[in-house]
Each structure stands twice: as C-alpha cells, then as structure tokens.
Amino acid sequence: xxxxxxxxxxxxxxxxxxxxxxxxxxxxxxxxxxxxxxxxxxxxxxxxxxxxxxxxxxxxxxxxxxxxxxxxxxxxxxxxxxxxxxxxxxxxxxxxxxxxxxxxxxxxxxxxxxxxxxxxxxxxxxxxxxxxxxxxxxxxxxxxxxxxxxxxxxxxxxxxxxxxxxxxxxxxxxxxxxxxxxxxxxxxxxxxxxxxxxxxxxxxxxxxxxxxxxxxxxxxxxxxxxxxxxxxxxxxxxxxxxxxxxxxxxxxxxxxxxxxxxxxxxxxxxxxxxxxxxxxxxxxxxxxxxxxxxxxxxxxxxxxxxxxxxxxxxxxxxxxxxxxxxxxxxxxxxxxxxxxxxxxxxxxxxxxxxxxxxxxxxxxxxxxxxxxxxxxxxxxxxxxxxxxxxxxxxxxxxxxxxxxxxxxxxxxxxx
Amino acid sequence: xxxxxxxxxxxxxxxxxxxxxxxxxxxxxxxxxxxxxxxxxxxxxxxxxxxxxxxxxxxxxxxxxxxxxxxxxxxxxxxxxxxxxxxxxxxxxxxxxxxxxxxxxxxxxxxxxxxxxxxxxxxxxxxxxxxxxxxxxxxxxxxxxxxxxxxxxxxxxxxxxxxxxxxxxxxxxxxxxxxxxxxxxxxxxxxxxxxxxxxxxxxxxxxxxxxxxxxxxxxxxxxxxxxxxxxxxxxxxxxxxxxxxxxxxxxxxxxxxxxxxxxxxxxxxxxxxxxxxxxxxxxxxxxxxxxxxxxxxxxxxxxxxxxxxxxxxxxxxxxxxxxxxxxxxxxxxxxxxxxxxxxxxxxxxxxx
Lengths: 415, 352
Hints:
A: 21 helices, about 75% helix
C-alpha cells in the first residue's frame, strides 16, 4: 500500500529533475550564445594574430619553400665537404622555378640576414644562368661568380635551410649562432636589444611610479570632495581622452621645445638664463607619457576609494591614532586593490608605447615597439618584428603572473 | 521567431544584392586606368599637371587614388591575381625589391621611346622616373653670419656653435659623415661598402654626437631651423622650399646633397598596360613635367622641362644643373642589401 502511494512522487521528481536539467542546459546554451560573438571576436582579433606572431618568430620556411630539393640536400650536408654537383644542379633548376613562382623575393630577403651580399649574388646569377650547363653546373656557377665555389656561401645557405629557426629570438637577446652552431653574444657594436628591453621596463616603471605619486592624492581628493566639485574635477581628468594621442604628443613638442612656451616663460620670469632641454630626451618622454596615462591610474583608484567608508579612519582617530597613522594603517591598505589595478594597467600600457617616444625622445629613448614598427614597415623583416613582439609579450605575461601571485598571497593574510 | 527568420532572409537578399552591386561597380571601374600616387600636395599637383590633361587629351578613363607606400598591398594583389591598380608611384628601395621579386612588369623602353629624353637614373628596369627629390644641408640665412660650404662645416662646432639636426637612421647620416671626413661624393658608396669605411663613418659621427638633435619627420628640420633649435640640419629639399615660399630665409646647400627618385611602376597582371604606357609617355613630356614642378619643388626627370620653368623656380629644382654639381645619387642597391645591418649598428651606436 505504502509503496503504491509512494510510487508516483519519484516519477514526478525525476521528470522535474530532467526538466530542471533541460532548463539548465537551455540556460547554458543561451549564455554560450550570448558570449559567442565575443569569443569569436577574441579568437579572430587576439588568439589568431598572436598565434601567428609567435609562429613567425621561429618561421624559417623561405628557403625550403623556394628551393625544396636544395634545402633537403643542404640539411643532409655536413657543412665541411665541398658541395657536390647535385647541389649545383638542383640549385640551378630550382632558382629558375622560384623566379617563375615569385618565391625569389622572400628568399632574397632571407639570405640578406645571413650575408648582405647574398641577395645580389643570387640576382646576378639568375640573370646570367644558362638553360643547360656547358660542362658541369659546378663549373658554370663558379665562372659566373667565384663565390659559388666557396664553402662559406653554402654554409650561409645551409643556415637558412631548416623550416624553423631560433635566429630571430636569439638576435632579440643580442645573441647569435657562430659557424660551429654555438650560441654566442653578437659583436659589441651591434648589441642593442637587451638595452632596449631594460630601457622599456625602466621607462614604463618610471611612468607608473610618477603616475601613482601624482594620481593617488588626486584620486583621494576626487573621492572625498563634494559631488559637484569632484564631478567638475573629474571632467578635467577625462578631458585628455577626447583628444587624439597624436595631437597631445605634438602639443608637448610645441610646449617643451627650446623656443617653446615653457622655456620662454621660465626665461621671461628670470628662473633660467638658458633654455632647458625638455624635449627629444627622456624628460620629454616621461612628461608626455605621464600626462597621457595618468587617467588610467586615477580612475581605478577613484572607484576603489569611493567605496571606502570614511568611518574606519574616523574610528581609528577617535581611538587615539595619529591622523597619518590612521591614514597609513587603516585607509591606505583598503586602496591596495585600486593601486594594484592602476599600476598594472599603466605599466602594461606604457610597455607598448611607440609614437610618444618616437616623436619626443632621442635615439636612446626608443622602446621595443619602435623597433617592432621599424622591422615591420621599413625593412620588412617580420621574423625579427615577431621575435621582439613575442619577447615583450612573454615579459608582460611573466610580470602579470608575478603580480597575481603577490595579490593572491596578500589576500589570505589580510583576512 | 518566424518574423526574425524572415527578416533574416530579407537581410541576406539585401546583402547579396549589395555584394553583387559592389562587384559590378568594381569590375566596371577596372576598365579605367587606375593611377595610384602618394597623394597630398604632390597628388594635387599631379591631378593638375598629369591626370586632367591626360583625360582631356586621350579621352581615356582615369581613376586616381592614393596610398601610403604599402608595398605589401601591391604584393598581395599580384599574388592573388586581383590587380586593380595599373600604375603606382614607388620609392626607389621598394621598386628595386619589387622588381627583384617580380611584382612589377618590366618596362619595354624601346616601346616607350623616351629613354634618351630622360635623365639616366630615371630609366629603371621596372620603373620610369616621376620626379627627383633631395636630402640637403639647410640653414637659416638670417641667423648664420657666415654660410657653411660643405659637410665639413656641418661638423665644425667651433666655427658654427649650436645643435645640428640629422635624420634618425643610418641612411643619409653615414653618407654625410664620410663626406665630412673628406670622401668625395662619387666615392662615398665604394668606401661605405667596406667594413673599414663603415667604421670610419661611425668614428666621424662620434665627434659630432653630443651636438646632434635627431629628427624623425620631414616637417621637423624647417621648424627647428626657424625656431633656432638647430643651426644647421639635413632636410628634404621640398620641405625647405615650402618654408621659403612662406617667406622664411632658409638656405639650401646643394653640393653634397643626396638625390633620389620616385618611379611609376606597373604591377604585374595589370589589364591596362597599353594605357599605362601612354600615361608614362604623357607624364614624361617637358610640358607636363614643368607643369608639375611649377606647383611643387620636386625636380623634373626630363631635363628639357627645367628650361620651361621660370628662372626662380628652376633654381629650386634638385635637377637644376648647378644643383646637381657635387650631388650624390642615392645608392638604392646598397641600402636594399645593407640597411638591416647598418641600421642595427646605428641604433646600437645612437643609444650609447
């Protein structure tokens, strides 16, 4: 009896359960559909380009694409024996087909990195190469240019033969492989990128610090002033956002140059007798970058400070703490989340700065992005651009992870 | 739900119609000769001197356009076989690279028949010269009591105290340094091709380094000269001429300058080669060249055109006979091969 009367409820319960599950699934699907455009956008705009950038930094397929058979021969070759007739024959044949396919351009560019004269050597050779050799191909090549008989020419080709390479990444760290394949430092007069990376970190760090020192009191003021006044001040903070970055940068040139407004007014007021050098050096870069990035420090700080109740600080003072101690021990720790967010935001944005240092700095103030742009636009060496970009990305990620670690360590301690 | 579906479908129809329409528009436009230049003031001068008279005279349809020198764009056009540009203004390094890579149609100079009318460097395997521009030593004639006469004076900080402007990069800078060190203009690239020559140039630059203010954009040197930030600067001739036209007393020193050309090139696979040849021929005539150069101080590649300009205008041209004396033709081949290595060394040097 009892079991009979008890029987129906489980069935309704399971149907309820399935209904619930179905509803849950539908909800999940809806949620997924809602984020689908963003996910797709991120995939197309972020994941794919970053992936292809990482790939380009090790990609070395120029020679193996233009001269597949020669590339195979070169890979099997030990680099010491004089290359056999087969090398010359396959090179002769494949150079012609590469010219017809339009692969010769990327090949020439790639060979320039090994030896600047190789491109001209290949061009001149192609132009004069006969359809059939008079005696042997080896003889033909060597008469066209004696350099084809030299081992070093073929060793340079061998370096370009594998489909992947670490040369761009190594070059980004001022390293290279010598003839024996060992990693060594490049000649001192060519060492530049380690300095550039350190400089980039130093500039970004200095900008972040100045922004924090200037932004913290400002955000505090904004958060504590009556709404009307703080709104007005907020507009002043946001005002720079409405002008283009380029205009703001150019405006600083006008203000800071030796005949500019700042120098002429300082001289007019008798503070200085000679114009200060404020632009085309580090000072100009720091001034302009702080100006541009300051709102990114103030806004997160402001939003956090706005949520901090003034009662805690008052309570601390009423319990006998010195106002500074109350501020430092009670108020400041509560702003840490804002300080962290503002700092990381400004620092990471500053790492990628390009146009401001390019226009306001001297040659020793250029950051990594300048060289990325230079390799992308001017020399078309996308491998080098990708390698520098990848390293910058890795450095940024490592710093971000360190930051996350610090924040996560602190949270449990506070509680 | 249904309504959404229906509107979706009509949207699809609409999109298809638009695409087909666009396709038709593009394909009809492809009939006309499409000429792409760098635009700006030069593009305006080209419209008056070349495009409009060409349309009026030959009744050919012509679609002008401009770009920012994106060589990759032309390459991808040629690679995908979808060439909608028939004639493109190219700077010399990209022309050399593109010619080597087979991106441009080689020009049949016999068919053009103007080879002996143009200056020598205007005749290129893949390109026909458009105009000549120059990188020169410039100074403010009102501020300097004594005029500098060579790059040696540029290096002489005792005689001419003050900062000097140079372009941030190895190109031009190394050539000027060697000339300051006493290398005659015609030997500059021979010396620079040797490692010792490069060392020599950098050593000479060491002397001047504390006095150099590096410029990045072509607008900076005339501005700095006028403001008195620098006493002398390397500068693009066209920019100085523009400042002169505004009444500034800037002076150009032509000996030791480096001149370079822009070229017309035909992307491989263009469907209007015949019309493109006609256009090149038309734009290389003394009259049209003079019409162009009278509006903008870029030198004509056809020497006869100089005579058709007013004497004052003619003296502003990089290709004026006196201005070419002691001037140096840009070593395009040299820079295409060596720019990577030398620019890196320059960057390392400049940052120290």
